[in-house]
């Protein structure tokens, strides 16, 4: 209860006190009237009065009582309203607390489910990282990791050390770099490694999206992207290219062979739902002597689209803004360009655009 409501309630007379006062004053008033009639002319004289005279007397006699009970009723009503207001405020406060408790309980349930799923994803991505490590070779065709060491590491993986292979792929000792292997070679050097990388990207990207659903301050997303699994995902994403990039398309139905030539070239007015609210920009595609080129115009700043690629109705590009890498994947269908922008922490924006 607020101080104002408490002061109002304490200054108002109580219901029982008001009713008692009303009964006492009414009794005194009626007895006084009876005494007045008896000692003035007597009952017989009063009864012998004309009807209009009796009515006028009774009207004047009971008018103060009516006013008295009207005032008492107003005081009682005001006090009841104050009590009801207090009860409603308390009810609202309890409802808010219950809502907060339910929301916290639901959040904890989602987080518990997330951590169970995360454990499975750690195992799966650890397996995929192991497949990549086992396939790495030097320029002379020699395996970077011997069969004996791979068996030893797989046994560690089976005992629950799911970071063993992702940690190796971060190349802390520089062994892969010394063998002349660039991240592009490690993750996309062969068709088999590219397919394995695609599976890794889809799995870990899905884990990030699940983390966002149960992460109220971004701590979970930051944590999982800083693990060896997350560092490998970031490296894969920064160097991703076709055909592995099509794994970023949100559904398989978005990427199907084009039945006719798509109309991509020109300028598109894009509207995106980003992590920080709705935003608009323009994207232009043109065909030049050097191939297909593209650019993004945002707030009068023009940025080129790097590594642009097209496959059927699917388009891919890499945009660097203020040192941040945005991976664009989308499809052109029915005169609309739809897709999403990925960053290290998952999907940054989903967008849709029409030709200008």
Essential attributes:
356 residues; alpha+beta; 8-stranded antiparallel β-barrel; 11 helices; 8 strands
Structure, explained:
The mean pLDDT is 84. This protein is an alpha+beta fold. Strand 4 (301-311) and strand 5 (314-321) form a beta hairpin. The protein is built from eleven helices and eight strands. It has an eight-stranded antiparallel beta barrel with strand order 1-2-3-4-5-6-7-8. The longest helix has 85 residues, at 51-135. The chain has helices at residues 3-11, 15-40, 43-47, 51-135, 147-158, 164-169, 175-178, 183-188, 191-213, 219-226, 228-238, and strands at 266-274, 277-288, 291-298, 301-311, 314-321, 324-333, 336-343, 346-355.
Order of helices and strands: HHHHHHHHHHHEEEEEEEE
Identify low-pLDDT runs.
none
- What's the count of strands? 8
- Report the C-alpha radius of gyration, rounded: 40 Å
Summarize it:
The protein has 356 residues and is an alpha+beta fold. The chain is 55% helix and 21% strand.
Give a topology summary.
Blueprint: H1 3-11, H2 15-40, H3 43-47, H4 51-135, H5 147-158, H6 164-169, H7 175-178, H8 183-188, H9 191-213, H10 219-226, H11 228-238, E1 266-274, E2 277-288, E3 291-298, E4 301-311, E5 314-321, E6 324-333, E7 336-343, E8 346-355
């Amino acid at each position: 209860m607020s101080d104002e409501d408490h002061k109002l309630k304490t200054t108002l007379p109580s219901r029982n006190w008001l009713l008692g006062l009303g009964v006492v004053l009414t009794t005194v008033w009626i007895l006084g009237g009876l005494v007045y009639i008896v000692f003035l002319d007597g009952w017989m004289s009063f009864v012998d009065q004309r009807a209009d005279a009796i009515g006028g007397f009774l009207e004047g006699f009971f008018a103060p009582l009516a006013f008295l009970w009207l005032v008492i009723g107003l005081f009682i009503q005001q006090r009841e309203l104050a009590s009801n207001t207090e009860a409603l405020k308390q009810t609202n406060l309890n409802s808010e607390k219950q809502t907060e408790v339910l929301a916290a309980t639901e959040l904890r349930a989602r987080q518990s489910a997330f951590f169970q799923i995360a454990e499975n994803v750690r195992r799966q991505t650890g397996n995929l990282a192991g497949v990549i490590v086992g396939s790495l070779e030097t320029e002379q065709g020699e395996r970077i990791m011997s069969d004996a060491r791979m068996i030893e590491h797989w046994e560690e993986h089976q005992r629950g050390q799911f970071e063993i292979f992702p940690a190796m792929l971060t190349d802390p000792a520089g062994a892969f770099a010394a063998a002349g292997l660039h991240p592009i070679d490690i993750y996309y050097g062969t068709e088999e490694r590219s397919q394995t990388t695609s599976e890794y990207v889809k799995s870990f990207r899905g884990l990030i999206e699940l983390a966002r659903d149960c992460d109220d301050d971004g701590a979970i997303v930051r944590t999982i992207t800083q693990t060896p699994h997350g560092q490998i995902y970031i490296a894969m994403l920064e160097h991703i290219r076709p055909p592995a990039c099509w794994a970023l398309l949100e559904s398989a139905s978005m990427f199907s062979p084009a039945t006719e030539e798509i109309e991509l070239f020109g300028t598109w007015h894009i509207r995106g739902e980003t992590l920080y609210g709705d935003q608009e920009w323009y994207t232009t595609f043109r065909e030049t002597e050097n191939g297909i080129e593209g650019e993004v115009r945002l707030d009068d700043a023009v940025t080129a689209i790097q590594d642009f690629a097209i496959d059927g109705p699917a388009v891919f590009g890499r945009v660097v803004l203020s040192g941040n890498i945005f991976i664009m994947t989308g499809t052109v269908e029915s005169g609309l360009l739809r897709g999403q922008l990925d960053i290290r922490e998952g999907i940054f924006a989903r967008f849709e655009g029409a030709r200008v």
